[in-house]
Amino acid sequence: MKALNSREKYDFMRNFAIALSLMLLASCNNNQKTDKPIVTVSLLAQKYWVERLALGFVEVNPMLVAGSDHSTYEPAPEQMRKISKSDIYFKIGHIDFEYAWIPKFINSNPKMRVVDLSEKLNLTLADSFCCKHSLNNENHGHKHTSRIDPHIWLNPPMVKEMVMIMADELCKLVPASADSIRKNEELFLKEIDSLDNYITKKLSGFQNRKFLLFHPALTWYAQQYNLQQIVIEIDGKEPSPSKMKDIIDEIKKENIKVILIQNEFPFERASVIAKETNAEIAQIKPLDYDWLSIMYEITNIIEKALRKSE
Fold first, then answer.
1. N or C: which end of the chain has fewer CB within 10 A?
2. 206-309: what fold?
């Protein structure tokens, strides 16, 4: 066997050291991936809640990202891979995506615990609220059916209840971090209380409590704060051309000056209505990540809309 000269020995040792370092780094990365339990959630807002409680203690795998349509969305392969390794799935409850996919997720990972965050909430709409849910009830009425409105993450008191359930489950999942989770929970719940108080005060004093929204995303928000949500889209369908004039006439009658629309929805039909009624369009982002900021933003937009209608 040929003896190595000094240069060859140096190159050999250097390459060996590099290879060993890469192996150790890969090992560390693998350990980091497996050390943290994976928690899967349906919405980015839930990811925000989990990370407010347990950032650094768990990895969060959100399903519906901003811009997704929950009625047609299909998980990406990487999301499914994480589903197969998830310890908990926090279900928001009553969205089309969950009805279609959670049974498949359970088949993929039978050991995954599915926690329905809506299970203990009072999801009963007041009869008076249901009857005044949409514009021009005779022509555009939306009767409340057995399908529960899923937009519970836009109601702060309901979110408070869901966050407490999350905290309990996360403490069981990572008991070594339970003290930190409880401290984070206490702080976050106080912030939700502050938000609730802000909304109540911000929206008080208006006689006309109607606001116009393209898609009925703020049902539970409206009921919580004694507002009337008027919607253009009914049961996922835009109004027919024959109904447009009725809607426009009703908007003028109610002196509505702002049309709220989610950033996931096309602006074309809302733009037509806005032009005909001299109203402006305000965009809301209920599916984005930063839940607390989103709620303050929605409230400020609604306050502006109510003020313009006075």
1. N
2. Rossmann fold (3.40.50)
Q: Provide the sign of the torsion angle of the four alpha carbons 45, 51, 53, 59, taken in this order.
A: positive
Query: CA 227 from chain center: how many Å?
Result: 21
With CA atoms as reference, report the closest residue to 46 among 26, 63, 27: 63
Q: What is the 3-state secondary structure (H, E, C) of 10-26?
A: HHHHHHHHHHHHHHHHH
Instruction: Please give the torsion angle defined by the CA atoms of residues 131, 133, 136 and 139, in that order, rounded to the nearest 10 degrees.
Output: -80
Minimal CA–CA distance to 247: which of 282, 221, 272, 284? 272
Confidence of residue 16 (pLDDT cuts 50, 70, 90): low
Q: Which residue has the tokens 């929206």?
A: 203
Domains of the chain, by residue range, sit at 36-119+145-195, 206-309
**Cut 0.90: pTM above it:** no
